[in-house]
Amino acid sequence: METLYLKVRDLKQDGERLDRAAQLLREGQLVAFPTETVYGLGGNALLPGAAKAIYAAKGRPSDNPLIVHISSLQELPPLVREVPPAIHQLAQRFWPGPMTVVLSKSDWIPSETSGGLDTVAIRMPSHPVAQELIRRSGVPVAAPSANLSGSPSPTCAEHCLHDLDGRIAAIVDGGACQVGVESTVLTLCGEPRVLRPGAVTLEMLRQVLPDIRYDPGVFHHLPDQAKVASPGMKYKHYAPHTRVVLVRGSREQFRRFLQGRQEPFGALCFEGDLPQEPCPLLTYGREHDPSSQAHQLFDALRRVDGLRVPVVYARVSGEEGIGQAVYNRLLRAAGFEEIAL
Ligand code: TXA
Ligand code: MG
Q1: Which of 231, 181, 190, 232 is closest to 209 using CA atoms?
Q2: pLDDT tens digits, 80-96
């Protein structure tokens, strides 16, 4: 299939392109589009065939449910069994924005979209192109990240093209994503829990839900038979083919650790960590600026295999705010392998 490339820089001037993409979505075709977090691979959330096509295009296991994207709060009630009161406060503070809430689903949501679960994850993105595309399509839009299953999420249209060119109907190019890591996922089914950290941090959520906590699967490797709160926790994620090992320590400790290595290796570290470039290296932002790390992480992970080394040591240090989301993704990229110096 030929993938249509639609550049949208200005909502008014490029309105016809948005209409084209919206029509494709309505008809059940797949369209990659920008959000403030990462690019999504959109399909009509109400059509079982569109959900099946999403799993096929990504090579994603069909028991890993899709996030359903809406453009206004009025679109929510028909998609869920009930709207819990907390949603109004959460929505007021964090929607539109990088927050996804798991609720019990209504019969409108086909089981293909929800991965066979009786819950559905809902998000209202803030990116103007995403909002306008959903609004013009007139349907809720199911959208996982627009990458091949297992590889790092795409933060620009080039990443989507690399993974999905020829496999989907269209790509809407709206430039680079601002945040760079996927939305915070929390559940309101049972005790409130964060299932995936993101730009809306635990501390921010506690202002509305004082008792909310991280699910144990967020920072710990769960045994294979464990019942997971979010199917995404079971699968290998963000992983380059190259072995990645996290190394926790100061800049000085990291430099000394690398000096002591005999075998060939590469490094993934913060800007300024290794000015002498003792090995092939990539950086992901600045040490005390977690937003810069989130913004650059996935692009850096996509380049790891290009270093052509057997192992890459990735430096981590204290995680604050969105830094917790960065660490959560790095843990998965490293298969939970971490050395503390
Ligand atoms: O920022 C984002 O959330 C991006 C953009 C495109 O919106 N989307 C995204 O989707 O990251 P995806 O499919 O790559 O990740 C969704 C995560 C998965 O780990 C999935 O298991 C979990 O959310 N999830 C979805 N529905 C769920 C549900 N009903 N219950 C528990 N976890 C759910
Ligand atoms: Mg994903």
Answers
A1: 190
A2: 999 999 999 999 999 99
